[in-house]
Amino acid sequence: MDMQQHTLHVTMHTYTMLPHVENAGDTTRLKNNPTKPVKQGGIMASQYMVSNEDSQSITMRYTDMIRQRIQEALVYPATARKDGIEGKTYIKFTIDKNGNLLSAMMIRSSGSSLLDDAALKAIHSASPFPPIPDTIGKERMTFVQGLTFALK
Fold it and tell me: Which one is the CATH code of 6-151: 3.90.1300.10, 3.50.30.50, 3.30.1150.10, 3.40.190.10?
């Protein structure tokens, strides 16, 4: 059994920075809160439509929900792990009001087609995303997702 620790970092930019994510074995944890595992399955968008919250707060929480969906779909390719391949790639993607993926494209390669393909696959696998909350007031949102594949 492979006892080497593998780390996946997820950084999303929707003109906002969110915490990195580490994937160590079968448990995904927020880097700034290493004792709290992230639950699988995601969160309903309706939980973020609280009338007392301002649009910016709801946008941040919604963006975090999108990041979690991608993090759950992200897989470090076995061949890349075996061959010791590491790297960071950036994917730009747009979703519509209903959470449908409209476009996804790589804007910076990791230098490895295995990692680049895994990053794009994670975006597509996480789709469809939860609908954009009405409070945000947008018909579509564009994100830049940074994905780091690192062996420890």
Answer: 3.30.1150.10
Residue environment code for 68-77, b if the CB has 16+ CB neighbours within 10 A, otherwise e? bbbbbebebb
Q: Judge if pTM exceeds 0.70.
A: no
Residue 92, classed as helix, strand or coil, is strand
Listed in sequence order, the residues at least 6 apart from 94 whose beta carbon sits closer than 8 Å to its beta carbon are 101, 102, 103, 104, 140, 141, 142, 143
What DSSP state is assigned to residue 113?
A: H
Q: How high is the mean pLDDT in each 10-residue block of the chain (152 residues)? A: 50 42 39 38 44 74 93 94 94 96 96 96 96 92 92 84
Provide the token pair at 46: 């309706």
Distance, CA of 86 to CA of 115 (rounded, Å): 8
* Beta carbons of 63 and 144 less than 8 angstroms apart: no
| Residues 85, 141: Cα–Cα separation, whole Å | 32
Q: Which residues contact 44 (CB under 8 A, 6 or more apart)?
A: 130
